[in-house]
Amino acid sequence: PDHPRVGATLMSLALAHRYQGRFAEAEELLQRALRIEEARRGTDHPAVADVLTNLGGIYIDTRRGDEGQAAHERTGR
Fold first, then answer.
1. 56-73 burial, b if ≥16 CB within 10 A, otherwise e?
2. What is the dihedral of CA 32, 35, 41, 46, to 10 degrees?
3. What ranges in the chain are assigned the alpha helix state H?
4. CA 46: distance to chain centroid?
5. What is the pLDDT along the chain (77 residues), one digit of tens a residue?
């Protein structure tokens, strides 16, 4: 359940939910993917930045700009 491939799969599924406007489900999946990626790869791994970028996009989509900005800043990009 915490294998890196699970994190990547959760992110892909979350993106599908996001594009369907299912933001709450997408956010939940991305939060789970973030926990997996951070635990397995460390907080400064590019996979973590990818999840944070997508999570930030969900926050912006749902008018939570401050949270979106914070997520994007965490990416270091």
1. bbbbeeeebeebbeebbe
2. 70
3. 4-19, 23-41, 46-61, 65-74
4. 12
5. 778 789 999 999 999 999 999 999 999 999 999 999 999 999 999 999 999 999 999 999 999 999 999 999 999 87
